[in-house]
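Table S2 (text version). Query chain:
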Amino acid sequence: MVDQPNKDLGPCSITWDADGDNVELNPTFGGVTFKDEVLHVEVKEDQQGEAPVDHVHTGRIVELTVPMTRSTLAKLEKAIMGSAVTTDTIKVSNKVGEATFALAREVIIKPLVDGVAAAEKTWLHIHRCYPFSSLEWVYDNAGQRVTNVVFKAYPDDFSTWVNEMWRVGEAV
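Corresponding structure-token output:
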């Protein structure tokens, strides 16, 4: 039987290396979603009509959506660009023109089994990514407020494998 690198069911723990601080972005509610999409452009020839004769890869988009819930001010500060926390307050400013690549850090997704992180060979490492918050807090008597944070990944300029975006398993 082949050893499966991923766990097929269950929650996970999210750790982001924000400014050198490993921040746990737990708990989550609604499912953490990892997306890897390879982009391409069709190559066509008049003689073949609208049918493509080839495809050329033009890049890759990697995103991780983390629905944070019951977050502390300190965790929200790490996940919301332009925020700062004082004693009992989080303040958010409008950052314009700030590039995020230099601020991008590794995120590690650890599947949980009975509340404990599974073996390291099942961990998903996204090497260089930055969080973009997408807040829509509903204040009502039926729903639970969730802070959706979408981490967008960049090709890693430090890895030994050129432009590595992510890996599953132990470090090589």
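Notes on Table S2: The chain has one domain: 12-168. The chain has a mean pLDDT of 88.
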